């Protein structure tokens, strides 16, 4: 065996181990920084009663954040607050503030925004994780349903943004995080209203990012396939649909724990855009941009297969 070959055999494993060690240490350091990124910060969660909302509430509460938990049910918000209090050390945590927030009632938004700002006098972090879904052929959806989805997925979040933005601009500080579906980037059949609302809110936050950067305000979007209820409680969509594969992930979607970890990491690194998805949905996004005809053909084929 030549000296060169022997050297290669010895060096390659060392390089691999050192590289793996570097990335491991990087993840550890990022994780430690992330745990301190919310301490004493005023954090609002728009849907604290969802699976992801509860997970974020637990993580941020233990991290020492000053939480403002929003939801449609006062009783369930109180239950969540009690759960957080019973599972944490009251000497190092803050009791969360509770605010009723229902994007179905847009007329109540001015009062809700005032109540939110009165909780601590300011906001540091807003997490928009609310979402209303519907799946149906376009012709079967009423305009009332279209408006309902737009209120919940678009008009509600942007109204809240517009209400708190002046305070953030005056303080030259803040971080807005939109937890959005991958359908904010690509659209699939039978989700016309849902995809339209998700595209709209995605575009709003993308535009807003450039507008508020000079004021020291960060805007991040996190696009996922779907949030599963639990690690073992979600099944994938019908396998007869080609485009149903866009929502398969390991194959259970994104767990609340995984999504909340990504949110905490984004708060630390202030990354502008995060995509939590396996390879196929990522390829679909690129195909939509560079090979639109092929993408549309695949979507149409999926609809035909579904009707067979």
Short précis:
The protein is 53% helix and 12% strand. It has 9 helices and 7 strands; from the N terminus they run αβαβαβαβαβαβαβαα.
Number of helices: 9
What is the terminal separation in angstroms?
62 Å
Give the overall pLDDT as a whole number.
Answer: 85
Helix % is 40-55%
What global shape is seen? globular
Number of separate strands: 7
Order of helices and strands: HEHEHEHEHEHEHEHH
Briefly note the structural class of the backbone.
alpha/beta
Major sheet summary line: 7 strands, parallel
Strand content: 5-15%
Low-confidence stretches: 231-243
Keywords: Membrane, NAD, NADP, Oxidoreductase, Signal, Transmembrane, Transmembrane helix
GO biological process, one term: intracellular calcium ion homeostasis
InterPro entries: NAD(P)-bd_dom_sf, Sc_DH/Rdtase_CS, SDR_fam, SDR_family_member_7C
Family: Belongs to the short-chain dehydrogenases/reductases (SDR) family.
């Amino acid at each position: 065996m030549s000296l060169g070959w022997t050297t290669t055999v010895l060096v390659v494993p060392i390089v691999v181990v050192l590289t793996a060690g570097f990335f491991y240490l990087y993840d550890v350091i990022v994780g430690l920084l992330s745990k301190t990124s919310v301490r004493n910060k005023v954090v609002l969660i728009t849907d604290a009663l969802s699976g992801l909302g509860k997970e974020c509430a637990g993580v941020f509460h233990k991290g020492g954040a000053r939480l403002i938990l929003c939801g449609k049910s006062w009783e369930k918000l109180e239950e969540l607050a009690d759960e957080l209090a019973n599972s944490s050390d009251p000497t190092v945590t803050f009791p969360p503030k509770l605010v009723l927030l229902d994007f179905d009632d847009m007329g109540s938004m001015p009062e809700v925004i005032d109540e939110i700002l009165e909780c601590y006098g300011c906001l540091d972090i807003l997490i928009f994780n609310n979402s209303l879904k519907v799946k149906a052929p376009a012709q079967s959806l009423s305009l009332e349903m279209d408006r309902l989805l737009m209120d919940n997925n678009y008009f509600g979040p942007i109204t809240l943004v517009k209400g708190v933005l002046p305070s953030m601009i005056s303080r030259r500080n803040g971080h807005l995080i939109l937890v959005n579906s991958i359908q904010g980037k690509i659209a699939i059949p039978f989700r016309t209203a849902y995809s339209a609302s998700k595209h709209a809110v995605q575009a709003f936050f993308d535009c807003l990012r450039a507008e508020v950067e000079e004021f020291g305000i960060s805007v991040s979007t996190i696009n996922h396939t779907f949030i599963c209820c639990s690690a073992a409680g979600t099944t994938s969509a019908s396998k007869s649909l080609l485009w149903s594969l866009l929502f398969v992930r390991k194959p259970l979607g994104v767990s609340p724990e995984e999504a909340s970890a990504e949110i905490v990491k984004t708060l630390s690194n202030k990354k502008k855009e995060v995509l939590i998805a396996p390879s196929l949905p990522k390829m679909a996004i690129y195909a939509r941009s560079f090979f639109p005809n092929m993408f549309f053909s695949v979507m149409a084929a999926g609809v035909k297969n579904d009707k067979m």
